Amino acid sequence: MRRSEEETQHQMIAAKDAWGEQEGWGKRAAKRGVDIVGALLFFTLFSGIFILIWWTVLATTGGPATYKHRRVGRDGREFDCLKFRSMVTNSAEVLRDLLENDPQAREEWTTTFKLRRDPRITRFGAFIRKTSLDELPQFWNVLRGDMSIVGPRPVVQLELDTYYGPYAQAYCKMRPGITGPWQVNGRSNTTYAERVAMDASYVRNWTLLGDLSLIARTVGAVFSGRGSY
């Protein structure tokens, strides 16, 4: 009798685990469906804005309108993250010279991987960065399956290795997002540690309703411009 009870208990545990896996798969499938529909709607409704920004970047800088940068995605796989180019064409050289000659800028870059006063950014580039319009090409990354509309902020491998520590595994469990908790909670006004904590909390607790709430809050964050530079 005791053995039968133990077998029944094991069967119940196995069934519960299987149900959890199915439920998790269902949530991920639903999230992917929302991503595909959302990206297709974006390209259908806002293609005119996309083309206008593309043309303006070309006309004002003479260089390519978009650029690719390697980011870490789900399961630790790297991908080419797309953005409208907001910087001068020789941005790498400008950054290198700045960090070599400006200790304060070097410390800021080492701490946050961002510069509050970045000489690489063009005038139009400052506008599209402040309004997050520079990230619109990432809807193509969403269609490709590299990214999600909502998720952790995409990072480079060096950031993941340097700052995420035990949270790196959580980051790699999901596709990074165009928007997420960081974008609606202060953006660049937050510390890097706070950003990592927000990403880890999102991975543990995300829901589809929560994603819709973050998308709605993103609109307000974009118009307020708080923490964007």
From TrEMBL:
One MF term in the entry's GO annotations: phosphotransferase activity, for other substituted phosphate groups
Record's keyword terms, sorted: Cell membrane, Membrane, Transferase, Transmembrane, Transmembrane helix
Sequence intervals crossing the membrane: 36-57
Subcellular location: Cell membrane
Pfam families documented for this protein: Bac_transf (PF02397)
Presence of the UniProt keyword Transcription in the record: no
Domain (Bacterial sugar transferase) ranges: 31-223
Keyword Transmembrane helix: yes
GO terms for cellular component: plasma membrane
InterPro entries named among the record's database cross-references: Bact_transf
Source species, domain of life: Bacteria
PANTHER family assigned to the protein according to its UniProt record, in alphabetical order: COLANIC BIOSYNTHESIS UDP-GLUCOSE LIPID CARRIER TRANSFERASE (PTHR30576), UNDECAPRENYL-PHOSPHATE GALACTOSE PHOSPHOTRANSFERASE (PTHR30576:SF4)
Family the entry assigns: Belongs to the bacterial sugar transferase family.
Protein's name in the database: Sugar transferase
